[in-house]
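Notes continue from the previous slide.

Worked example: a multi-chain complex. Inputs as given:
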Amino acid sequence: MAARFLTTLTWFAGLLFFFPVFWMIITGFKHEGDAQTDPPSLVFTPTLDQFRTLFDAGAGPYFLNSLLAAGMSTLLVLGLAVPAAYALAIRSLPRAKDVLFFFISTKMLPVVAVIVPIYVIAGRLGVLDNVWTLVVLYTAMNLPIAVWMMRSFLMEVPREVLEAAAMDGASLVQTMRRVLLPMVAPGLAATALICLIFAWNEFFFSINVTASQAATVPVFLVGFMTSEGLFWAQMSAAATLASLPVVLAGWAAQKQLVRGLSMGAVK
Amino acid sequence: MTTDVIPAPGGQRPSRPLAPSFPAARNTRREGWRRRAPLLPALIFTIIVTQVPFLVTIWYSLNSWNLVRPGSERFVGLANYADVFADRVFRQAALNTVAITAGCVIASMILGVALALLLDRTFVGRSVVRTLIITPFLVMPVAGALVWKTTMLDPLFGVVNAVLSPFGVGDMDWASSLPLLSVITALVWQWTPFMALLVLAGLQSQEREVIEAAQVDGASPSRIFRSMTLPHLRRYIELGVLLGAIYVVNTFDQIYIMTQGGPGTASANLPFYIYQRAFLGFDVGQAAAMGVLVVAGTIVVALFALRMLFRTFAEES
C-alpha cells in the first residue's frame, strides 16, 4: 500500500516536471488561435504550419551558426583538453593540483566581469558578429570542465598498461592513439556531449557579441518576444526545435551526463 | 629554491647559463618542459581568453568612458567605485543575486533529495520517470524561460492560473507581482533534475549490505536515513550546492526573458544590471567597476568553496 503510494507520487512528480516541456511541444502543433485560450485547452486540431513557417521565417542560418559554434568549439576544446589532462593525470607534473584549480577557478569568474572588454576588443579587431568569435569564447567557457573530466577519466587507466606501451617502444602519439584513446573513448564522448550542450544552449555571449550574421538559436528564440505580444504557437514550435538535439542526446546518455557534470567526482 | 634541479616555470633562472659540464641539469630541465608541453596550449589559451580581459576590465574601471561618445575616455581613478557604492540599484542587485542563488540552490536541493529517494526504489517505469525528470535540465534555458513566461505564468492564458483558479488566485500577473519568485521557479524547475541525478548517484553508491545489516539490527528507516544515508550523501549534496551555485550566480537568460529585471529594478541581479549599464547605458567605466566588485565578492566566496571542492576530490583519490 505504502509502496503503491510512493510509486504514484514518483510518477506524479515526474509528470509535473515534464509538464512544461509537454505543453511546449503540443503548443507548437496548435494553430495560433488555439494557443491562447482561457482556460488553456488540450483539445485542438494539430497542424505542422508552425514548423513549416519557421524555416520560411529564416531559422536556418541561426541553426547553422549554432551548429558551427557548438561543433567547432567542442573540437577545439577536446584538442586542447586531452593533452592537458594527459599531462596532469599521467605525467606527475609538479604543482598539478594548482594548475587544476586555476582551470576551475576561471569557471568561478563571472562572465559579466569580462564581457565589456571582450566586446570592445572584438570590435577593435573587427570580429564582432563573427561565428569564430563565439567559437573562441565557447572554447574558453568549456575548457576547464573538459580538463577536469578528461583528467578523471585518464586517472582510471592502469599505469601498467602505459608502462607496457613504453617498454614496447611506442611513441607518445602512438600511445595516445592506440592505447589511451580506446580506453577513455566513453569518457571522451561524455566530455564532448557536455561541451556541445553548454555551447548549444549558451545565450549571454551570443546576444552580446553577435548581430544579424552570427546570431545563434537562443537569439532567434528571443526574437519572438515582440512588444505586440507573442505568437505562442510559433514560439513553442521554435523552442521545441531548438531544444530537441540536446534533449535527445541527454536522454541517450543520462549516466555519462551526471558523471560529466560532477566533473568526475561521481562514479 | 635555488638548489632545485628543476626550476619552477616562470621562476628565477640562474643568472649565468649552465656550463656545458652540467649536461645532466640541462637535460633535466628540458625533460621538465617536455613533460609539461601538452599542458601549455590549454593553459596559455585559458590565460589569454579569461585573465587578459579581466585585467582590461580593471583598467576600464578606472576610466570614465561612454561608448556612444567617442573620445570621452579619461582616467578618473576610483571615482567609478565611489559611484557604484553609492548606487542603490547596485546594492539591490547584489541582494537579488544572493536571494536568487540561495533560493534556487536550496529549493532545488531539497526537491532533488526527495526525488532521488523516490527514484531509488524498484517500480514499474522507473527509467521512464527518470527520463521525464531529467528533461527540464536539458531544455534550452531560453526556451524554458519563454515557456514559463508565456504558457505557464501568463495572467490570462497561463496554465498555472487555470490550475489555481479554484483556489481564488484569479488573474495573477506572476512576472510583475512576484518577479523574484517567478524567476526562482523557472530556475528551480531547471536545476532540480541535476540535483536529483547527482544525489541518486550518491544513493546508488551506498553499500546495500551495511543498510541491510542495520535493518536486521532493528534500526528504523528514519534512523537509517539520518545516521547512515544522510552522512553518506553529504559529499554529493555539497558538490551539488557548489556546482549549482557557480552556475546560478551567473543567471541571465531567465531574467532577460521573464522580467527584464523589472518591474523597475526589482528582479535585476548583478549580471543583468551590469549588462544594462554596459549595453543599454553604454557606461563602460561603471559596468567595469561593478564587474571587478563582483569578482572580488566571488573570490571571497570561492576561496571557501574551493576548499570544499578540494576536500571532495581529495577524498576521491
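Summary box: Chain A has one domain: 58-261. Chain A touches chain B through 100 residues (CB under 8 Å).
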